[in-house]
Amino acid sequence: MKEIKKITCIYFSPTGKTEEVAGFMTKMFAELLEVSYEMRSYTLPEERKKHYIFGDGELVIWASPVYAGRIPNKTLEYIASAMEGHGTYAVPVAVYGNRNFDNALAEMWGILKQSGFLPIGGATIAARHTFSEVLAAGRPDAADYERICEFCEKLIQKLRSFADSESKTEPEIPGEQDPTAYYVPKKENGEPAKFLKARPKVREDSCVSCGLCETVCPMGSIKMESLKTENKRSEDCPGRSLPIFEGICIKCQACIRKCPKQAIYMDDADFLSHVKMLEQNYMERKEPAFYL
User: Fold this and answer.
1) How far apart are the C-alpha atoms of 75 and 41, rounded to whole Å?
2) Which residue in 15, 112, 251, 277 is deepest, having the highest Cβ count within 10 Å?
3) Which of 80, 138, 158 lies closest to 114 in space, CA to CA?
4) In this predicted model, what pLDDT tens digit does every residue of 64-121 receive, in sequence order?
5) pLDDT tens digits along 164-218
6) Residue (of 249, 243, 254, 244) closest to 268 by Cα position
């Protein structure tokens, strides 16, 4: 095989689960190959200003959460142009909330090929759904990580079996590599759940104006502004500010899950109905799937 001198993991992870999975897998590959590794996030707006060029002596792990059966649409334009491979081996990893990964892994596979990479294996891993406390709670667990270890070992064996002159057959990846549609979320009654324009809200009495939500929003759509209401003026409570939710919201739940006071929440009826539908229909354990 080509000598692998370095491993780089590129990931999008607003609430941390994708980073957790990607980090474990990347470290495992690095240990097996006895090489160094780097973790590179493109979660925040500033991080999406970087462009990456990789050579043929590297291995790239690309990890993304699954949103509506594909990679998050607001990251698609960036990621399709940000990574440039030159015969670089790559492994796409789709992390999903126990419903279905649909076209996400195939889409990632296709993007890698179009960007000059040689995808050699892929994985789909179930993790706690960011909308729910009970859907895939505790995932990935010890059994998941054991299977991830087995996948890493098998993929290294596959790499070592390659001869440069040998044609490399691709595994059959389920889904479409160039999809056009997204999964349509449903309400409990089966009708489409329309919450595209829904925004989080804040409990003013709980918010401590720490500003953490502003720093973790992957779209840069939260701003802290001085508190002004009909009964209070900002000068009456110096230093008091509240988050204002403007611009694009991808429903990643980063602001909600990372708020230290649980002051941020969603109350949109269609969104909440969709969460209930998921919890009613997708509680059965989904096992990791690996493609070599």
Assistant:
1) 12
2) 112
3) 80
4) 999 999 999 999 999 999 999 999 999 999 999 999 999 999 999 999 999 999 999 9
5) 545 567 899 999 999 999 999 999 999 999 999 999 999 999 999 999 999 999 9
6) 249
Q: Show Cβ contacts of residue 203 under 8 Å, excluding neighbours closer than 6 positions.
A: 263, 264, 265
pTM: 0.94
Exposure pattern of 187-211 as b/e (b: 16+ CB <10 Å)?
Answer: bbeeeebebeebbbebeeeebeeee
What pLDDT, in 10s, does the model give residues 11-67?
Answer: 999 999 999 999 999 999 999 999 999 999 999 999 999 999 999 899 999 999 999
Instruction: Measure the CA–CA gap between 264 and 243, rounded to whole angstroms.
Output: 9
Mean pLDDT of the chain: 94
